[in-house]
Design a protein that fits this description.
The chain is globular and about 50 Å long. By secondary structure, the protein is of the alpha/beta class. It has one domain: Rossmann fold (3-Layer(aba) Sandwich), CATH 3.40.50.1820. Helix 1 (28-34) runs parallel beside helix 13, helix 2 crosses helix 3 and helix 7 (150-158) crosses helix 8 (168-178). 42% of the residues lie in helices and 17% in strands. It is built from 13 helices and ten strands. The chain starts with a strand and ends with a helix. The chain has a seven-stranded mixed beta sheet, with helices on both faces. Strands 6-8-7 form a three-stranded antiparallel beta sheet.
Length: 281
């Protein structure tokens, strides 16, 4: 059985898929808003499965297969698919493979890069330099794993530029979601740094299929990007709109790749407005 979390609510099923390194509980403020109008379900990516092995994953395609299998197991015929970062790509690929399973797609700052970038990254992987050149892998592997208390974590994270747009309240929710209690006291990361690095290393290079499918995508689709993102570039947004003008793209000011953690209320309102205008509720 595919591991998942049920987050409450009723009415239209909405599946939310988290980002690499950020378990579902990190998104509490956003998911609580969703639960007022939807039945919320969230698959756990393989890094959060018991006894999972990073070496078994060579690309991100199996994650989309996991999602569709979860829909089968939970007897979900049609849902709104929402995903952040890798969660957006996994959801998009699942919808491309089985479009009838999705009423609408909401992609939050998806890890989608132009084909030219895909070719460059594929070259690095081919010559065995993927782990060396990826800008996020070294940081993931060096990440501190164990903590005495969460107040100390908060004080440290509060100083990091990456979290500059996250309020104190939401940062504490994020830290609670990132960690879990240790036997004997203290806390540890819930998401293995080795798995986080492996997900970074295995992404992008097989995403050619996404660009082939985007022009034919008929599912109502919304993309929300952060104005200061380093992931879903402005040039990528223009290319997506050229290939499929039906896809709606919204840029959220004063936000980064972490926009659903930074501005959960604004993200929720944009999504619900999009769903409401298409009578998808």
């Amino acid at each position: 059985m595919i591991p998942f979390v049920a987050l409450g609510g009723d009415n239209t099923p909405l599946h939310f898929l988290h980002a690499n390194g950020y378990p579902p509980n990190c998104y509490g403020p956003l998911l609580k808003r969703f639960a007022t109008k939807h039945q919320i379900l969230g698959m756990l990516l393989r890094p959060l499965w018991p006894n999972s092995n990073p070496s078994e994953v060579r690309d991100w395609h199996p994650f989309s297969q996991d999602l569709l299998r979860l829909f089968d197991e939970r007897r979900i015929d049609s849902a709104v698919g929402v995903g952040h970062s890798i969660g957006a790509i996994v959801t998009l690929r699942a919808a491309i493979n089985q479009p009838a399973r999705f009423r609408a797609l909401v992609l939050l700052d998806p890890v989608l890069f132009p084909r030219s970038f895909i070719l460059v990254w594929d070259l690095f992987r081919t010559i065995g330099r993927g782990y060396r050149f990826h800008p996020l892998i070294k940081g993931a592997l060096r990440r501190r794993r164990d903590f005495d208390d969460l107040d100390t974590v908060f004080k440290g994270y509060r100083k990091r530029p990456i979290f500059r747009y996250i309020s104190d309240e939401h940062l504490r929710v994020l830290i609670d979601g990132l960690t879990e209690p240790k036997t004997g006291g203290g806390f540890k990361l819930a998401y293995s740094p080795e798995w986080e690095a492996r997900v970074y290393a295995t992404g992008i290079w097989r995403d050619w299929d996404l660009w082939t499918a985007i022009p034919r995508l008929e599912i109502p689709t919304l993309i929300i990007r952060g104005a200061e993102t380093d992931t879903f570039w402005k040039s990528t947004a223009r290319l997506v709109m050229q290939k499929n003008p039906k896809i709606k793209i919204v840029t959220l000011e004063h936000s980064t790749h972490l926009l659903p953690l930074e501005k959960p209320d604004e993200v929720y309102e944009i999504i619900e407005s999009f769903l409401g205008t298409r009578t998808i509720q």
